Structures are given as C-alpha cells and as structure tokens.
Amino acid sequence: MSAVTGADTPAGAALELRDARVDVGGRAVWSEVSMSMGQGEFVALLGANGSGKSTLLKAALGMLGLSAGSISVLGGPAGSANVKVGYLPQRRAFDGGTRLCGRDIVRLGCDGERWGVPLPAPRWSAAGRRRNADAERVAEAIELVGASAYAGRSIGECSGGEQQRLLIAQALVQRPRLLLLDEPLDSLDLPNQATVAALVARICREAGVAVLLVAHDVNPLLPYLDRVVYLAGGRAVEGTVAEVVSSETLSRLYGMPVEVLKARDGRLVVVGQPEPPAHHHDRHEHSHEHDHVH
Amino acid sequence: MTNPTLTWNVARDASEVLEYHFMVNALLAGTIVAVTAGLLGWFMVLRAQTFAGHTLAMMAFPGATGAALIGVAAAWGYFAFCGAGALAIGWLSGGRTRSWSEQSAGIGAVQALALGLGFLFVSLYGGVLGDLENLLFGTFLGVSDGQVLTLAVLAAGSLIALAALGRPLLFASVDPDLAGARGVPVRGLSIAFLGLLGLAVAATSQVTGVLLVFALLVAPAATAQVLTPRPGLSLVLTVALGLAIVWVGLGIAYFSAYPAGFYVASIAFALYMLARMWAWARNAHGSRRRAAPSPGRPEMDAPPTEGVIA
To answer: How many other CB atoms are there within 10 angstroms of residue B24's CB atom?
Structure first.
C-alpha cells in the first residue's frame, strides 16, 4: 500500500481555484468560484444536475479553459501534471458485451496513451522491465481496491460495484496525488455506495491522495468528508458539511428558501431545491434525485 | 482438373490442391485477407462498429460500377468509395455526444446514398455489367498474381498502421472519456480506424465479394471475443480462426461442386455458434456453482476484502 503513496509530499494545494469562471457555448457555467484543496484531503463536490460539477473536473484536467480567474493543480497549471491526476469520468456502466477483462482495463490506465502495441519482450530488456513494473502497479492497484477475485473476468460480466472498484483501480494505477472522481456512486445500490465511499476514504487516508468526489447525495460520504464544495446558481460555496449543507447557506446560494432537514440517523435531506436549468452540461439522461436526500 | 475427390490421405489431398496455380493464389489471398480482416475486425467488433463496417462493404457497389463507368480498374473505385465512406461515417458519427441511435441513423443514410449512387452508375453505364456477380460473391478461385501482390502491400501497410495505433485505439475504444483526458486523440483515432477498416474491406471484398466480407471481418473476431477477455490472446485467436476458416473452406471447396464462399461463411458461422454455446454452458455451470454456497449475488454481499467498511 505504501508504494502507492507519492514519494514526496510537498506542501501546498492539490487543487486551487481563484475567482474562476468557465464558459461553455458562450454562457457562463459558473463564475467567481474559489476553492482550495490541501494534499490528502477528501472533498465532495455537490450540486444539482447541470450545476457544472463535471465542468469543474474538466477544468482541473485542463480539458476546458477558464475565461477568468486562475486554477492550479498540484502547484502547476491545469493539465500540466495529468500523469499525477487520477480521473474517473462520469459514465454509464460497461455494456455486458464488452469482452475485455478487468485487469486489462486497469492496465490501460497505466500505459493506454502509449503508441504501439505491447509485444512480448524478454524480462531483462528495457521493455521487459517496464512491462514488469507496469504489471506490478496494476496488481497493486487491484489489490488496494479489493478487486483481485474478479480482475480476470470480462468487465461486462462484473456487477456495478465491481466495475466501479476496477475503475477506481484504473484511476489509481499511475499513483496519483489527486483523484478526480465523477459520480462514482451513481448507479450503485445503497450497500455498494457505502462500501465504495469507505474504499475511497481508505485510499485517501492510506495513500495520502487528495480526492475530489462528485456526488448527488452527500449521505454515503458523511462519515469521511473533510469538506464540501456546493455548486448552485453559477456560484460555489466551500466549507465543512455543517457549514455548507445548511438551510441558511443553501437558501443564500439558490436565492430562494431551501430547507435542510437532519434525520435521526444523521442523514441530510434537502427540501425545496429548485429544478435544474433546462440546459444541461452533465450528460444525464435520468433527472432523478433533485429534491431529496442531498 | 479431373473431378477431384477427397481421400483420407490429407497430405496427398493438400499436395494435389497446391499443384494448381489458381488454388495457390486463392490460398495466398485468403491468408492475407484472413489476417488483415481478422485484426481490423477485432477492433470493429470491440467498438461495436459492425454496421459501419457493413456500410463500408456496400461502398464496393458504387465503387465498382463507378469505375466501370469511367473505365478504370474496379479496385480504384473500391478504394475511392470506401475511403470517402469512412470519412463520411467518421464525420457523421464523430463526437461522443452523439447517441448510438443517431450514429446508426447517420451510417444508414450513408449506406442508402451509396447504394443509390451504385444504381445510378449501373443505369448510366447502360450495358451489362458482367462483373456484378464477382462483385457480390467474389472471385476466390480467380485471383491473379497482381491481385495477390496488391493485397500483400495493402495488408502490410494497414497492419503496420494498426500496430502503431493499437494501444491508444484500444484505450479510446473502451474508455473514450478517460483516453481523451490523458491526451489520446480520440476523434482522430476514430477516423483513422475507419479509414483502415475501409481499406481492409475494399481489399477483402475484391476476393470474397461484398456479401461475404463479413465472414472474415466479423466472425473470427466475434468468436475470439466470446472465448476470452484477454486482448492479446483474443487477437491471436482471431487470426488463427480466420486462417482456419479460409484454409478449410477453400480446401473443401476444391473437392466439392459448391462455391468457396459458401463454405467459408458456413464454417465461420458454425465456429461462432460453437463458441456461443460453449460460453452459455460455462456461464450456466458457473452460476450454478456460485449460487450453491451463497444464494445472494455478490452485488449485495459486497465487500470482498475485510475492513472495507471501516
């Protein structure tokens, strides 16, 4: 496990935005967004569909440019250190017919962008040594997420929770310093949401990786979060869960009365949250969970 | 040849087959086509672009008729139309934001236009296109030395290109979002792949005919992907199956009154069905075995390692 940890842990922010603004199609998705994530912190990025959560991750990866403000990732400009950034894109599950085994999917996270094809090479050659090193990293990442039992199976045959673990392993295989996870809990059932949330928290602590996790529902993450960032109405609020997911803050953010109720078991329920704008940026075909369990 | 008959002496039969130059050429062309179409087909099946491949095969119809109309070799028409078709499909189905239904509708429109143009060219040509049967069903047993050479050069070129693109193409095929984030030119690869596929289809269809391209493009790859999820092994199996299909098909055809294309397609289909039955039997066996100790599916009794729920 310790090998996954970045060798050096320099001080400074893992991800920092200052008065940032992103325009897509000539329209601001959000603006005046400032946030800062320390090394090894576990932060949830919350907000309704279309509030620009995925956009923020893409800006952090350098796939979308800012139209105002600044962004720095691991101390450099966005996109400059993507090898040190693990990314799990938002997606639907793999099709049942995808005939590729989990271990190879994880491996693509290691060397997928390298041109050419892996050819058999003797162990002592440079190519052979690199292959062995890669294979070790892959096995280590798979073990870290507890997916060894089904890594040899075709990914299409794995359950949703198993696929999500393998994809997290894929994001981890480069031994990143920052993990950007776009809705890893989406499309999982409740027990799996809890175990995947616990898994991400464990990786965050044990490997010292900063995690920014996009979620619809903060509840499965409540025991583990350092802080949350809430995107709504083109603005963002950053703070602890208690500070941000409160009636006052969310009412101010949405500009209309929103109530946050706390259930007896500690779960938070957001009531009166407005419908998202018709123009979506998140590619969500199902517009569920707008007005409950946030 | 005087009414060849199949004996139990395989070595003698094989040497008899190889005494004929047309059979040697057929086997050479079949071998080249099996390898090239198999490997490109493997990526096509993985990318679920079978319909695009089918449409590229149809491009041979306007290609060949158009070539006849302006009086050049049919091959030029094949390559021109397959190339244009690949670009059109790449452009219409480009961008991951398009849904599968939108993409297939676009590909269907390209196919309809291609067939329409083919009919136009036939009518403009006015005369009888004697090659039409060859176009549809191929000239497996009439491959010339020049064709074998052309095929070999094209195959070598497209396989070198495929080898260079291989790993990023696999990445972009299974995980376009992540591949894009890691700097893989997803869109460019998609168009490059369709171009290579167009080339392979054009080359293959000259030998097997438009209607039978799929026997070698889809069947070996689909069969191999059913048999194993390991990409390396799967690619090797694809080539082995393709070669087996072509060699056995041509061998039987030599000793039989029926066309080679029929045997090639039938063997391809039979192998695919066998693989599916094997996978089905294995799954049924596996789920029975899994169901025995714990009735709940792993989805519910999730944590495979202790301490995940801390």
So the answer is: 15
